[in-house]
Amino acid sequence: MCTGMIHPNMVIDALTKGADGVLVCGCHIGDCHYIDGNERMESRAATIEMLLEDFGIEPERFRLEWVSASEAQRFVEVVNNFVKDIKELGPNPFA
Fold it and tell me: Residue 60 in contact with residue 89, Cβ under 8 Å?
């Protein structure tokens, strides 16, 4: 329900099991229904990127974006850009 519930292990697990990328979209900072969940996720993003480097996985395979439910066009753009970037990286070496 909230990006604040996403533990770094969840992202690492997905990528080490072969997912080509992980995109996490959450409420804008200051707009969290759960008060500070998105701020928690924001602080975890740096940890996730560091762990990915330790595993030899490109940090670009993970992305955190703030998109509200009313921003359908922005959501489409974020997803399309992420898919394009992942295709350029190629398949995950863990696949």
Answer: yes
Q: What are the start-end ranges of the H helices in 1-95?
A: 8-16, 37-55, 72-89
User: What digits encode the pLDDT tens for the residues 52-67?
Assistant: 999 999 999 999 999 9
What tokens does 93 get?
A: 């070496």
How crowded is the C-beta side of 72, counted as CA atoms within 13 Å? Answer: 0
Which range marks the domain in which residue 73 is found? 3-89
Answer whether residue 94 is part of any domain.
Answer: no
Report if residue 53 sits inside a domain.
Answer: yes
In a domain, 75, yes or no: yes
pTM above the 0.85 mark?
A: yes
Give the number of other CB atoms < 10 A from CB of residue 37. Answer: 18
State residue 52 phi and psi, 5-degree precision: -60, -45
